[in-house]
Structure formats: structure tokens, C-alpha cells
Amino acid sequence: MESKTLTNLEFSKILSIIASYASSRPAKERILNFEVSVDINFILTGLNETEEYIDYSEMGLKLNPGGLRDIRETLEVLSAGSTILGSEDFSKIKSNIETAASIKKAFESQDKQLLNKTTRIGERIKKLPLLNSLYERINDCFDDKGLIKSSASPALASIRREYIQTVAQTEKELNAYIAHHGDSVQDRYFTLRNDRYVIPINASSQSSIQGIVHDQSATGQTVFIEPLQFLGANNRLAQLRLSETEEIKRILTALTNMLYQSLSYIREQFETLVWLDTVKAKANFAGAYGACRPDVSEKGDLVLHNARHPLLHPNCVPLDIFLNKNQRCIIITGPNGGGKTVSMKTVGLNALLMQTGNYVLANNDAKLPIFTEILSDIGESQSIEDHLSTFTSHLKRLKEIADVADSRSLILIDEICVGTDPIEGG
User: Residue 31 pLDDT > 90, yes or no?
Assistant: First the structure.
């Protein structure tokens, strides 16, 4: 569909309204990139999906993928197969698995009559991968803050247990050391420098303490010394930290491999949830704006009762408009501010809504043909860039329309003779 018409009719603003009813960024972006189709199967599929979602909602079934997280970057990393995923990636996938399970449970909790009804939404939910074993493993490894649990592996539990014990024993011995060397110690406490236990010693007493200097105070009056007798304990703690890092890396590698092996199912689950979020947005838009399902007219009839402009709804005067094979043209006249331009845009926008698989803002007897092109010449047409007057620009635009239009096009022309004086030969 011609981009100039989409701009003239401000269709992107309508898509933004629909997108606002989606929960996730991927669904919002998908709606904003809706393409206007001339494929009747595509259009009917979109209308059917919206109708199904509305029917389910009226039956009390709420299929809301509100916990859907955007994992497109994670899927790209997994597809490349060369990077270990981090906790945020696993958190997103876990959330999506929870969302899928919640939707499937809600659907299967309905009565058998509803479950036996064949619908596109029902079929996709039935095929929705649950990935229970993957969910359980992620849940076993991460706590609510996204940190690796000690129970993620026996080795990690052992490392952390020894680390805690070593810290407790070292700190006990440090307290005893400070008590014994009270005259040399600046303050009766120990601290850390470079992840190693040190003691603040008076600079004047430095020679009385054998150890390694790690830091000094700004005044130079205090030096932070690691006594030699704690060298072994500090080294062991450093080794345990390295061992912990390596074990966590091993756990994340194993989890990443699990995800890689389930990549096709993770992608299918994500795509289904994004699709469902998109359908939900279309259905909720229809509900909020009083939109109805139109019939696709194969004979070329256009019937709109109480049609409204989406950007003016509900504070607008609805219009009725009818076209058929015997009446293919309507001329609208009236004073400025009488709604002529709005009327044309209302027809064009509702046609675009249907051809993106959306309900239209009109009564439920709405009927629209599939237009091969929707072409408009609406608004100020003066072109400074091309050094064209308003009227000349209108003529240029009309030629563009004539070159593209066919018998199945919808053409919207506003103020065809504007910008000239007919008496002067315009």
C-alpha cells in the first residue's frame, strides 16, 4: 500500500493506539509494522483471530500474556552458539515459561464444550511448548534476585560451605591477633584490601608487624598490613573465590547448552506468546472503541453505518456511507469545518483497518471490499522543494494516482480545485 496515503491518513497513529493495548515490546513493534494486505485469507485470518479472542473473553476466559519478556537478543545469541548466557537471560526465559503455563492452564480449565471448539487460538495454545524440565532446572539454579543458589550443584555448595567456615575461623583469629598486638594497632578492627584481610597498624609501629603492606591512609599515619600468619588463610579464600567463579561458569554453560538443545521450542513458545499478545491488543482495541467485524465484500459493496474516525472517537459525529458497483463515486460538499475531510479519512482508515485484519469503527453490518490500492490527495499539497504551487502539486498528485489506480482502488481527493482561480484559467 502506498506510503504517502498511509501518511496522509495518519494510519501510524491508529496503529500506535492498537499497540498500546499490547503488554510486550515485541507485540507493540509487530503492530506498528502491520502491513496492509490484499490477500483475503490473511485478512479473514486476522478477523477470525480477533473474533475468537473476544468470544473467549465473553466466556470468562482471560488469555493475557502479561508476563511475556523480550528474548529476541537471547535467541540470537543461542543461534550463534558461542556465548554463555547470563542470569537475566534465564530470568526472561523462566518468565515466558511461567506465562505459557498460566495461559495453557487457564485454557484447559474451561469446560469440555469450549475445549472441543476448533479455533486457531485453541490449536496454538494446545501446541504451546511448556518446557517444564527446563523451568525446573532454571528454578533450581537461581534465586528470586537472579543469583546462583548454592544448591545449584554439590561442588558449589561445598565451595561456599568451606568459604564460610574459613572466613569465620580467620576472623576469629584476627580478633585474637588484634587483642594481642593492641599497642601497634591503630584501631581495633580488621578490614579488607584487594579481597584480603588486613589490619590497620600505626605507621610508627610498622616494623613490629611482619607482613605485606596493601594500603595506607591519606595522612600516611596508618598502614594496612596483612600479617604473614594470615597469608595462608587469605590465599585459601582467594582460591575458593576462583573455584566458585569456575563452578558458576560451568553451571551457566550447562544451562546454556540446555537452552540450545531446546532452542526451537523456546522460539515457538515466544512466537506464540507474541502472537497472542498481538491478538489480545486487537481485541481490546475493538472493545474499547466499539469496533465490529466487517464482512469482506466480493462484489465491491461498501457499507458503513455509524462509522467513526479512530482519532476522534468517541467525540465525533458518526457517518453513514454506501457504495456499490452501480454507484462508485461520492462527492461531498459543504462549508469549511463541516467534516468533509474527516469523512474521507474515516472511510480510508476503516478500509486500512480491515486490510490489516482489524475490526472497523462502524456497526456490525459493515461491509468493505478489498482495495488493491488506497490513494489519497488530502491536505496542503504545496511543494517548496519542487518549486510547485498548491494547484500544480495537486495536479502532480492526481497524475500519480491515475498512474497507479485500477478498478479496485479507493481514491480519496480533498478540494480538487484548491489553490487556483477558475476565472483565471485554473
Answer: yes
Asked whether the beta carbons of 114 and 59 are under 8 A apart, the reply is yes
Taking the CA atoms of residue 24, residue 349, residue 391 and residue 420 in that order, the dihedral angle to the nearest 10 degrees is -130
Which parts of 109-194 fold into alpha helices (H)?
Answer: 112-115, 120-126, 132-141, 154-180
Contact predicate 263/270, CB 8 Å: no
What does DSSP say about strands 410-413 and 374-377: parallel, antiparallel, or unpaired? Answer: parallel
DSSP, residue by residue, 47-112: HHHHHHHHHHHHTT-----TT----HHHHHHHHHT-S---HHHHHHHHHHHHHHHHHHHHHHTS-H
Summarize pLDDT for 32-91 with one digit per residue, the tens: 999 999 999 999 999 999 999 999 898 888 899 988 999 999 999 999 887 899 999 999
110 in Cβ contact with 279 (< 8 Å): no
Q: Which of helix, strand or coil describes residue 224? A: strand
- Cis peptide leading into residue 314 (ω within 30°): yes
Place of cell 587483642: 179
End-to-end Cα spacing for the chain: 31
Model pTM score: 0.85
